[in-house]
From TrEMBL:
The lineage of its organism: Bacteria, Pseudomonadati, Bacteroidota, Flavobacteriia, Flavobacteriales. InterPro entries: DUF2851. It comes from the Bacteria. This is DUF2851 domain-containing protein.
Amino acid sequence: MKEDFLHYVWRYKKFPLTGLATTSGETLEIFNTGQYLRRSGPDFFNAQIIIGTQRWAGNIEIHLKSSDWYLHHHHHDAAYDGVILHVVWQHDAAIFRKDNTEIPTLELRHHIAPTLLRNYESLIHPKSWIYCEKELTSIDPFILGNWMERLFLERLERKSGAILQLLDRYTGDWEAVLFCLLAKNFGLNTNGAAFLEMAESIPFPVIRKERFEITALEALFFGRCNLLAGKKQDQYFGELQSVFDYLCDKHRLVPIAVEPLQFFRLRPDNFPTIRLAQLAMLYHKKPHLFTDLVHAADSSAIYDLLQVQVSPYWQEHYQFDRESPFKRRYLSRSFMDLIIINTVIPFRFAYAKKQGADALEILMALLQSMAPESNSILDHFSTFGIKPKNAFESQSLLELKQAFCDKSRCLECAIGTALLKS
C-alpha cells in the first residue's frame, strides 16, 4: 500500500463518517477534510473536526504508520506544528507535539470497505507496461473522453508555462519567442538544444533586418551553429563565410560555443544542414509568420504557411562539398505535423492566455482535424484497445502515460478512480 491510497480515501471520504473515534477513544466528527496540498508540509490544509467536545481547525497529516512521523522527521519541522489530526493505516506509536501533548490519531484500516481495498490492490498490481492496461477498454467512453480533454489542457498549461517564461526573457517580444520555439523543434530531439542555442544567440531584430536575403539568414544560422568553420573547396561555403563575418561585425555578435550538431543515424532529410536551410527559407518567405500562424483558421492554412523548400544550393546538397541528386526538399507532411503539435498549438495557447482569451476549443478542433502521431507509446495503447483517432487523442494519451502512468499517479487519474469504484 502507498500513502496516495490513504490520500484518496481521506480526500473523497471513502470511509464511514459516523461512529469514528481516535486511538485514545475520543469521539471524532469530520466536517471538512481540508484542502489537498501537493507540496512540502502537511497533506491537507485547514480541515475542520470535533474531537470529544472540542472543535478544531488546522492541518491533517497522513502516513501508513504512526511512527512514520518520526521517520520523516516531522517532529523537527515547524510546518507540522499546526497538525490537529494524524490519519494512519496502522497505529503503532504515540506521537507528541513539542509541548509533549499527544497528537490525536485516526486509524483507518478498520474503516475501509474490503471491495475498495481489493480494487486498489488489483489496480496497483505490477503489470507489463501500465497498471490498468487490461481494464482500459472497460472504462466508460464518457469518462475517458472528459479525461482526455483534461489531459490535453494540462499538457498545454505545462508547455505554455515554459513559453511565458521565455516571453519574460524577451520582454514581451512574441516573434522572438516563436523563432526560438521553431528553431528548437526544427532541430528535433537530436539537435533541438543546439538549434535553440543558435536562435537565442541572434537578437531577433537582426532576423527582421536580414530576412530579405536568404544568403544572410543561412549565413547567420550556419555560422552560429559552427558549420562555417575551417576551409572547404565549396564556393557557396566560402560565400557564406564571408557574409557571416560581415554580419557578425555589422551586428556586433559575440562568438558562442554551441554544442556540436549531430548527423549520425539521421536520415539525410533530417540532417541539421537541411533543417537550418528550411528554417531560413521559412523566415525569408514568410515576413508575417507570427501574425499568420496566430490567426490561421485551420490546419490547412498552417500547412500552406509551412510549405517552403530549400534554396537552390541545398536542393543538390545535404552537406557542404558533397553533391547529391536534385530534390526540392519541402517540409514533409509528418514534419509539419510535429511543428504544429509541438510549436504552433502550445504557442497559440500561451498567446491567447496572455491576451485573456480562451483558445482551447479552437486548438482542440485543429488537432482533431489532424492525423494521430505514431510512436511506441501510442502503439502500446493500441495493443490494449485504445487507438487514437486524431492528434488531439494522441497528445492526450502521451500526457496520460508520461504525467500519470509513469509516475504511478493512478489515484489522481480518472481511469484509476473509475476502476476503484467498479
